[in-house]
Amino acid sequence: MKSIIENQIQEVKQKLSFLDQKREGIDKVYQDLEVAFITPFLEQYNILSEEYFLKYSYNSFSINALRDGIYREELVSFRIHEPSYSFGEEKERVISTSFYSTNTSGEFELNRMVVIGKVGQMLLDNKSNIIAGWSELNKKYGSEIKGNNDEVYALEKELRELKLSLREIEKEEMYNILSEGVHFKMDDFVTLNINNKESRYLSYIKLLSTKNKSVVVKYIGHRDEDFTTATVRLMHLERFIISYSNLLTPKEVLA
User: Which residues have a Cβ under 8 Å from the Cβ of 43 and sit 6 or more positions away?
Assistant: First the structure.
């Protein structure tokens, strides 16, 4: 049963990986479409040149330039989005702009002001057309990506359920091993919280019984002379199992 679930988990992970790649492909297609959509507006106002180029990222368009021939600097950016006060309601999209201010008046900064002015004029003259065209693209993208997302959500839910089932099986295996009794080496440094105190350097532990939210165990430390029986909170035993699962293998029972 465990191997079947492990195989199912791997199959779901492979499907999720495929959908992630598919999503990346869809994103790339629509990013290219959005860049192709906005570029003619920029060219109409002579904003783009060898010196000034367009950069796109996460629904934001920016005009960048090479400064001193090496540093890419953003001159101005704008993005199309729903107003922040829409609260999930269907509202007309808006265009926000962003640019920095400076007190310097060198040639680069003066030219940047010219670019900012051209972008501002472009948005004033074409705001409605830009928002309408971008919204139509976004609607197609949303429709296409929704199917991909629905598949991802369903697979993620399935993966969570499979992992939960696997953890239950593994926990039962650990309980069975502990019921047989396990002993440890001194340099394993195994500790267990018993009555809110750390019992260090356990040499041996055996699960005797479970009840409600606690378990009864028999244990002995490397420095102890005899076995001790104690009630341990279930949460502490489960933390013990997580911490030392690599050491919990069937071994010769001491007592």
Answer: none
